Amino acid sequence: MNKKIFLSSPHMSDEGFEKEYVKEAFDTNWIAPLRRKCKQI
């Protein structure tokens, strides 16, 4: 039995913050599960 995983559609803000964060992650070579901008619990 296969279970479906439903994903939400991508959304980018009008201000473009997401694009800036993705570019920063690649520029600093910081591709990891947690980023310094993430709040750790």
Summarize the helices and strands and which ones pair or pack.
Blueprint: H1 17-27
Q: Describe the biggest sheet?
A: none
What structural class should be given to the helix and strand makeup?
Answer: mainly alpha
Low-confidence stretches: none
Average the pLDDT over all residues and give the rounded result: 77
Oligomer: single chain
Number of helices: 1
Radius of gyration: 14 Å
What is the approximate shape?
extended
Helix percent reads 25-40%
Strand content: under 5%
**Element-by-element helix/strand order:** H
Distance between the termini: 35 Å
Count of beta strands: 0
Description:
With 41 residues, this protein is an all-alpha fold. 27% of the residues lie in helices and 0% in strands. The chain has one helix at 17-27. It is extended, with a radius of gyration of 14 Å. The N and C termini lie far apart (35 Å). The model has no long low-confidence stretch (mean pLDDT 77).
Offer a concise description of the structure.
By secondary structure, the protein is mainly α. 27% of the residues lie in helices and 0% in strands.
Please supply descriptive tags for the structure shown above.
single chain, 41 residues, mainly alpha
